[in-house]
Amino acid sequence: MSSLRLHFLSVVGTAVVFIFTLWVNQEIFTHSEFVRGVNWIYLPAGIRLLATLLLGGDGALGLLLASWLVNFFYFFPNDALRSFVGGIIATVAPYAVYRLAQEIYGLRASLSNLTAKRLLILVLAYSIASPLLHHVWFFLRGDTQDIFNRFLAMFVGDLLGTLIIIYTMKLLLALLPKRSVAPLRDGT
């Protein structure tokens, strides 16, 4: 498969998975919406972190396109600025955590040096970074009504959603058949 085709499929695949996860979240956790776009459980947050950890820039680009699509046409169709900036913020937060992990932990593309403890730290860092960046933007726009409670709801939603996605993936990977390694012959 050509490199360009692989990048394209990574970007499009990320966007499709993100939008599908958003739909699932809206169907299952519709009762957990605090305000429009802020849920107490937000599964797409987990896809954001997972996509950037696995796919780097391709994942981030797919997230940006998907975020713009859902912001402009679903969440905030009458607020172009909020849709545009919100899509960027939603992408910058997980990508910044990914880049930080590369710098601090020397994160490899295979994620082979991503321990359980490091992963939990990244989940927590992302769950703080995303609502923090969003709420700095809200503050700069003068949208300060109930800002602490919105921050708390977004933090909890991102944290729970990310933990659910990450540990669901971990469980699914554990259920895959193990590849056995043939025993070495000692020549006898």
How far apart, in Å, are the first and last alpha carbons?
Answer: 43 Å
Number of domains: 1
The parts where pLDDT drops under 50 for at least 5 residues are: none
Largest sheet: 2 strands, antiparallel
Outline type: globular
Helix content bin: over 70%
Strand elements, count: 2
Sheet-strand content, in percent, reads: under 5%
Please report the number of helical segments: 6
Word description of this protein:
It comes from Paraburkholderia polaris. This protein is mainly alpha-helical and 188 residues long. It has one domain (3-167). Helices cover 73% and strands 3% of the residues. It has helices at residues 3-28, 43-55, 57-75, 80-105, 116-140, 147-175; strands at residues 33-35, 38-39. Strand 1 (33-35) and strand 2 (38-39) form a beta hairpin. Helix 1 packs across helix 3 and helix 2 runs antiparallel to helix 3. The radius of gyration is 18 Å and the shape is globular. The chain starts with a helix and ends in a 13-residue tail after the last helix. The relative contact order is 0.14. The model has no long low-confidence stretch (mean pLDDT 91).
